[in-house]
Design brief:
- By secondary structure, the chain is an alpha/beta fold.
- The chain is built from 17 helices and 13 strands.
- The strands form 3 sheets. The chain has a 6-stranded mixed β-sheet with strand order 4-5-13-10-11-12, with helices on both faces.
- Helix 7 runs parallel beside helix 8, helix 12 crosses helix 14 and helix 15 crosses helix 16.
- The chain is globular.
- The N and C termini lie far apart (about 70 Å).
- The structure holds ligand F0G.
- The site of ligand F0G has 22 residues, from helix 8, helix 12 and helix 16.
Length: about 475
């Protein structure tokens, strides 16, 4: 902890909401299981042993909306450690009813917005706070595209090419690039900035390879709070940098890589009293769990065999793994999917650790064209390691060439994604070829960021000299040479 205490100024309504929240959450060290209060005067991001923290929430079914007899109330007070099929049915009904509400901004936003958000729809499992404190765009509600050879249907041959490339019959891609700022980070930042709001923080900050910063900048701007982003100079895709600048964040460019920026931002936040919103902040992880809940709901709570995603700082692997564990313990799903985390081979510390049976934690000097996952010392290593072990999961690596080839397939299908996201498909293809994923198994892959985030890497570029004269004959000649009709 630093020298200067954070300048928190919650008003009375927020103080009472925080007091209420403090009765249902605790922070648990992932390394040594030490417990800390969920809310304290000085925000805590690490255990005294240096380990990262996880939010432990006592989950209550919302009796306010569903009046029931005293006997039922007892049954429905479901804690994570207690599989309760009856409660599972009630939760499913509640989430279904909330999801059926319009996702457009309602006139009375305070009343309906949380149900429209693909994060806050699951609020009892994310952050149980009064709805009017929520800072939301709203986020989530992202597409789950059936793209396998069998589950694609007959009318989207473009999409089916993805299934053919992966050699899989039942494949879905969940496109988190369809979030408000174009990446899955919005799910974590809506919760992180909501906590900043409740705590009365005077500023928020993060280190980022570009997407977290864009998201933080947007949500902080919505709240009218200064946002500060630490970026590794020359390593952030232009679209992401443009977002942070446009949303008005204060940008600190570091001569170094993401790992340098991460070390610095933690120190700066602790010492200058700024609220840290990297996934080191355990409330970020709580928000990202909603990717897991939402995809399970889209699959009508029939869990897939595999969940495959790109891995950098390992926040998302940790979050989705935790969501699956909770969904299982609450009786929402019958089994926990296996999780496959895919790293770029030039930025593969987690893969190396996995290959050593997690006997030691590896660090690398990261190098990959997928700048979003160019990370050599992932913060959420211990959380993600638990997830891989608990889900009988796997860590795989793919080369930049494999990432670019997979990206071209996703782009040409009309879906499109940024380079890091394509590690998902490259990884799926590799795991199918290796026989780890069986061809008949059902797989969900996460696409983490929008195509427009990085409009340079892996996309054919037009040259000025390619322009033709503005005449019908020139256009006809040009098209005949390019297309065969
Ligand atoms: N895909 C994209 C598009 C990302 O932006 C990131 C992380 C990841 C995958 C990896 O997710 O870190 O949870 O393992 N981007 C962070 C950022 C580091 O700063 O935007 P992870």
């Amino acid at each position: 902890m630093g020298e200067t205490s954070i300048d928190l100024q919650p008003d009375r309504a927020k103080s009472s909401a925080l007091k209420q929240l403090a009765t249902v959450i605790e922070l648990r060290c992932v390394e040594c299981a030490s417990l800390y209060p969920g809310i304290s005067d000085q925000p805590r991001y690490r255990c005294d042993c240096g380990g990262v923290l996880d939010v432990d929430t006592t989950i209550h079914y919302p009796m306010k909306q569903e009046p029931a007899s005293q006997k039922e109330i007892e049954t429905l007070k479901t804690s994570e450690g207690d599989v309760n099929i009856f409660a599972g049915t009630r939760w499913r009904q509640l989430f279904k009813q909330r999801a059926s509400q319009s996702i457009a901004w309602p006139v009375n936003a305070d009343e309906h917005l949380p149900n429209s958000s693909g994060v806050w729809r699951y609020r009892e499992l994310i952050l149980p706070i009064p709805e009017h404190f929520i800072v939301s765009r709203p986020e989530g509600n992202t597409g789950l595209y059936p793209v396998g050879r069998e589950n694609c249907g007959n009318h989207r041959p473009g999409h089916r090419r993805i299934g053919q490339y992966a050699e899989l019959d039942y494949l879905f891609l969940k496109h988190e690039g369809e979030n408000p700022t174009g990446s899955f980070k919005d799910r974590g930042l809506t919760v992180g900035v909501t906590m900043a709001n409740l705590l009365g923080a005077r500023a928020v900050a993060c280190a980022s390879t570009g997407n977290t910063s864009a998201s933080l900048a947007s949500y902080a701007a919505q709240l009218g709070l200064p946002g500060i982003v630490f970026l590794p100079a020359t390593n952030v895709a232009a679209g992401k940098l443009a977002q942070s600048l446009a949303y008005g964040a204060t940008t600190v460019q570091i001569e170094g890589d993401f790992d340098d920026a991460m070390r610095l931002v933690e120190q700066v936040c602790n010492d200058l009293g700024i609220y840290l919103l990297n996934s080191l902040n355990p409330f970020r992880i709580e928000g990202q769990k909603a990717i897991g809940f939402e995809l399970l709901q889209q699959l009508e709570w029939k869990a897939p065999d595999w969940l495959v995603l790109p891995a950098g700082n390992l926040g998302n692997t940790s979050a989705i793994g935790k969501a699956f564990r909770q969904a299982h313990r609450l009786g929402l799903i019958a089994h926990v999917p296996r999780i496959a985390s895919i790293q770029a081979s030039g930025a593969n510390p987690f893969f190396r650790s996995y290959m050593s049976g997690f006997s030691h934690r590896e660090h690398v000097q990261a190098q990959t064209i997928a700048t979003a996952i160019k990370i050599g010392d992932p913060v959420s290593y211990s959380r993600a390691r638990l997830v891989i072990e608990e889900t009988n999961g796997i860590v795989e690596e793919v080369t930049d060439e494999e990432i670019l080839a997979a990206k071209t397939v996703i782009d040409r299908s009309g879906i499109g994604c940024e380079p890091a996201s394509a590690a998902t498909l490259a990884g799926i293809r590799k795991l199918v070829k290796r026989g780890v994923i069986k061809r008949e198994e059902q797989v969900v892959g996460i696409l983490t960021g929008n195509l427009l985030k990085d409009s340079q890497t892996g996309i054919p570029q037009l040259k000025r000299g390619d322009a033709i004269t503005a005449s019908f004959e020139a256009v006809r000649r040009s098209l005949t040479s390019k297309l065969s009709f």
